[in-house]
Design a protein that fits this description.
With about 210 residues, this protein is α/β, with parallel strands linked by helices. It is built from 6 helices and 9 strands; from the N terminus they run βαβαβαβαβαββαββ. A 7-stranded mixed sheet has the order 3-2-1-4-5-6-7, with helices on one face. Strands 8-9 form a two-stranded antiparallel sheet. Helix 1 crosses helix 6 and helix 5 crosses helix 6. Bound molecules: glycinamide ribonucleotide. The site of glycinamide ribonucleotide (GAR) has 16 residues, from helix 1, strand 5 and helix 6.
């Protein structure tokens, strides 16, 4: 099977990146991470890439005079690495419409809740789990979705539920949700690798 070429963009610890690396190395995911890009030079995600001989790039808006110049550089890196799928894995920056459009239906994000709930501005990382617990819902989960120009809005590819226990703190819930993320992201990437994803309007259909 053809190996799908990935760029992974991450801002922090990169446990999702690690889970993808592990799946690839175990032979269970037909993919190749061509480059890991982070806006944060200290992101452990970059260290994880280096440990696995994956090209790592620190690319921040702060390194460029204008947003356009940043976009040009990012697009250049994606193009020169012949990227099929851009994978946002805890990437905490909003990409410009220009970049998003260039990878329409070829850029995905993982969100630690069941979108369209608990998404949008300010809903990232632990804030999501705090909001989930505060709301009193009994079920949360993980969403993998296509990235469009509206934050946390693109068509949903797969979701998985995680129960909220009475004893949960935001931290304990985050930990359980993260374990599910580690399974689900590779599953979603696998669907792209097997060319099973079909997009019609704001719906994703998974071919059998
Ligand atoms: C993950 O829980 C991911 O879903 C979340 O950040 C964490 C990154 O963890 N992303 C968002 O909240 C995006 N809105 P990681 O660096 O260990 O993969």
């Amino acid at each position: 099977m053809k190996k799908i070429k990935l760029a992974v963009l991450a801002s922090g610890g990169g446990t999702n990146l690690q889970a993808i690396i592990d799946k690839i190395e175990s032979g269970k995911l037909s993919a190749e991470i061509r480059v890991v890009i982070s806006n944060n030079s200290k992101a452990f995600a970059l260290e994880r890439a280096r440990k696995h001989n994956i090209k790592d790039v620190h690319l921040s808006h702060k390194m460029f005079e204008t947003k356009d110049k940043f976009d040009e550089k990012l697009l250049e890196i994606l193009k020169e690495n012949k990227i099929d799928l851009v994978v946002l894995a805890g990437y905490m920056k909003i990409l410009s419409p220009k970049v998003i459009r260039a990878y329409k239906n070829r850029m995905i994000n993982i969100h630690p809740a069941l979108l369209p709930h608990f998404g949008g501005t300010g809903m990232y990382g632990i804030h999501v789990h705090e909001a989930v617990i505060k709301s009193g819902v009994k079920v949360t989960g993980v969403t993998v979705h296509l990235v469009d120009e509206i934050y946390d809005h693109g068509a949903i590819i797969i979701q998985k539920c995680v129960p909220v226990e009475d004893s949960d703190t935001p931290e304990s819930l985050a930990e359980r949700v993260l374990k599910v993320e580690h399974q689900l992201y590779s599953e979603a990437i696998g669907l792209f690798a097997e060319e099973k994803i079909e997009v019609k309007g704001n719906r994703v259909y998974i071919k059998k």
